[in-house]
Design brief:
The complex is a heterodimer of chains A (about 80) and B (about 450). With about 80 residues, chain A is mainly alpha-helical. In chain A, about 50% of the residues lie in helices and about 0% in strands. Chain A has one domain: Orthogonal Bundle (Non-ribosomal Peptide Synthetase Peptidyl Carrier Protein, Chain A). The chains are: A mainly alpha (about 80), B alpha+beta (about 450). Chain A: Pfam families: PP-binding.
């Protein structure tokens, strides 16, 4: 999966979890917790949605690095 | 229109889940109700046939207004009083025409609950008065709500002798005072001549209302509420209006809490080394869908500790603290766009950790989507706020009346700790308790927090 596809998958997953976020205009540097206000349950749902759509299963030890939309896109692109 | 929380004043039916002629059992979902906070599914309190709807879709009515008529059997009369005329007193009493008979155990129960059995309409065989009738009447006499069966696990509000209501007698002067105090005359038991509501009744009510779960405060909602449009098209304006309403509802309840509840506050820092190591080990073997989050462990520990320290689990109603035998753990869920709701995880102390996690996920999703059920909003016996997820280390919450305690968990942070004479870096969480001094004091509160700490040291047993 290239960066472009990963981006589409991540934005779709964010839309599922936080439908109020305008994903079309979303700044990739937005932080998941502080800017998008995702809590730990939202974050888990986000990863679950991504696992379904991309097949990437994120181990818990990688959670700490996934702080922004951009980092998540990189991560999905690199691991799919 | 049942009360879906201490702070609910009005509601409107936005969707019927049944149609006239349907047979409904107690507990069947019959309608979706829009409160100022969220949309909730409401269950039937009666078994029988839906005869007619008494309110229109989108019509905002006060708590206590009958919304549907359910008949027991074709031969049976109306179980629910007829619709109140607009602006008139919501009828809250069952019809008085039928004097049913009751078995001695039922009479005993009625006596205990302070229900006058001769005023009851029996729904049992040949009009016999059943246990459910008496319990529903006890609930009604304490609350201006439609016939409502008390869930067996939930504490029954303090029963009061059944007032004779229907039309409220009051002087113009009393009505003016009622408006000023924000008291709904329909909810006041008059002690004047002919049960007229006196000024003294109103002042007592204005003082008592903030303490009672069952008597909603009134008069704060603007007139526009009564002409609110149906919630089919949630435009941006409506969304903004909803947030404003929710803000106001939360504000009123919290102001009431701060005004009436003598809070005391405790705080302790808990070492989560064992809990986090255990959780990470478990999670590493699991797919994302069944992984745990720290919040689930914290909630499980809080629920089990609440079961053991009953002084902080229950309701303070009409000047009396009633501990609850069941722990229905309210979980504060921040809504996207602003506002907060705190629906219950029922019997949270009895749930296995995985079960609790699953329910927590489900509850959070439904809370945000506006698909909570009535009992989830009405039942919490103690509430937990887990603000730590979004950053802060410590949160001292405001108690949700008539509950008597609120537990706060902050962010899990790494801290240097002394363990067996050595300094180590450990994950920790600050747990706080805001509790009602009328129901407990610091010693019991301390025991509660200490118990949470102990439970978290043995996470495999949660």
């Amino acid at each position: 999966m290239n960066e472009h596809e990963a981006r589409a998958a991540v934005l779709a997953a964010i839309h599922e979890v936080a439908p109020d976020v305008n994903t079309e205009r979303l700044d990739a540097n937005s932080r998941l917790r502080q800017d998008l206000e995702l809590d730990s349950l939202d974050f888990l749902r986000l990863l679950e949605n991504l696992a379904q759509s991309t097949g990437v299963s994120t181990p818990e030890e990688d959670y700490a690095d996934l702080t922004s939309v951009q980092r998540l896109i990189h991560y999905i692109a690199a691991h799919s | 229109m049942p009360s879906l929380g201490a702070d609910m004043e009005h509601g409107k039916v936005v969707e019927w889940l049944v149609k006239p002629g349907d047979y409904v059992h107690r507990g069947d979902l019959i309608a979706e109700v829009d409160t100022e906070k969220t949309v909730m599914e409401v269950e039937s309190f009666e078994e029988g046939i839906v005869a007619e709807f008494l309110v229109d879709l989108g019509e905002t009515v006060p708590v206590g207004t009958p919304i549907a008529r359910i008949t027991g059997t074709p031969a049976d009369g109306a179980l629910v009083p007829p619709k109140a005329a607009p602006g008139a007193t919501p009828a809250v009493q069952p019809p008085l025409e039928s004097v049913g008979h009751a078995t001695p155990p039922i009479r005993h129960l009625a006596h205990e609950l302070g229900v006058e059995i001769e005023h009851l309409h029996g729904t049992g065989r040949q009009g016999a008065i059943t246990r459910a009738d008496v319990e529903a009447a006890a609930e009604r006499s304490a609350a201006p709500a439609p016939p409502a069966a008390t869930p067996p696990a939930a504490p029954t509000p303090t029963p009061t002798p059944t007032p004779t209501m229907g039309r409220v007698r009051s002087s113009p002067r009393a009505r003016r005072l009622a408006a000023k105090l924000g008291v709904d005359l329909a909810g006041v038991r008059g002690t004047g001549p002919g049960n007229a509501v006196t000024e003294a009744d109103l002042r007592a009510e204005a003082l008592a209302a903030p303490l009672s779960a069952s008597v909603p405060e009134r008069g704060a909602a603007p007139p526009s509420d009564t002409a609110a449009p149906t919630a089919e098209t949630a435009t941006a304006t409506e969304a903004a209006e909803r947030i404003a309403k929710l803000r106001r509802a939360v504000g009123e309840l919290m102001a009431r809490s701060k005004r009436e509840v003598p809070h005391y506050y405790l705080s302790t820092t808990i070492d989560l080394g064992a809990a986090m190591a255990w959780m990470q080990r478990i999670n590493s073997e699991r797919p994302i869908a069944t992984r745990l989050v720290p919040a689930a462990l914290l909630l499980a520990a809080a629920a089990k500790a609440a079961k053991e320290v009953p002084d902080i689990n229950g309701f303070f109603i009409d000047g009396v603290f009633k501990p609850s035998p069941a722990v229905h753990l309210g979980v504060a869920v921040a809504l996207r766009g602003g506002g907060i709701v705190a629906p219950a995880l029922h019997d949270a102390d009895t749930l296995a950790l995985d079960q609790l996690m699953e329910r927590l996920r489900d509850l959070t999703v439904r809370a945000r989507a506006g698909h909570l059920q009535r009992a989830e909003m009405a039942d919490p016996t103690i509430t937990v706020t887990n603000l730590g997820d979004l950053g802060v280390e410590t949160v001292f919450g405001v108690i949700y009346p008539p509950q008597v305690a609120l537990v706060g968990f902050g962010r899990v942070v790494s801290q240097p700790r002394a363990i067996d004479g050595l300094i180590g870096v450990r994950p920790t969480v600050t747990a706080t308790l805001s509790a009602d001094h009328r129901a407990s004091d610091g010693l019991r509160g301390s025991l509660f927090l200490a118990r949470i700490d102990e439970l978290l040291q043995k996470p495999e047993k949660l």
